[in-house]
Amino acid sequence: RAAGAARRRKRAPEPGRNKATVKGRVVKSAIEEYHKKKPVNHLRENLQYMLKGRLVADKAITEQVLAQNRGRKSKDQPPEKTEKKKPESTVFTEEDFRKFEREYFGIP
């Protein structure tokens, strides 16, 4: 019970300034607070900044930057380009095969 009573007992007021006084207090206007916290739209300044510089980087440099910014996960990697294979064709023609048959098997 003694421990519970000690916890409930209020702490002694610390020496310092008295918060109940009005001296030095600045009255805040609700309108000023609203204007302070209102989001600012920087679109116009950003557009002016972007349109001011028309320098276009080299394509190799942009590719390098994009490669550096890609993640390491497989979903972030671009699909690999595979070369299309040509259908395999033989050097020999049908007539060459017939000629080989005749010579090898002896069929006239």
TrEMBL record:
The principal localisation class reads nucleus
Q: Name one GO cellular component term.
A: nucleolus
Which keywords accompany this UniProt record?
Answer: Nucleus
PANTHER family documented for this protein: ACTIVE REGULATOR OF SIRT1
**What is the similarity comment for this entry?**
Belongs to the AROS family.
**Gene label:** Rps19bp1
- Domain of life, per UniProt, equals Eukaryota
Q: What is this protein called?
A: Active regulator of SIRT1
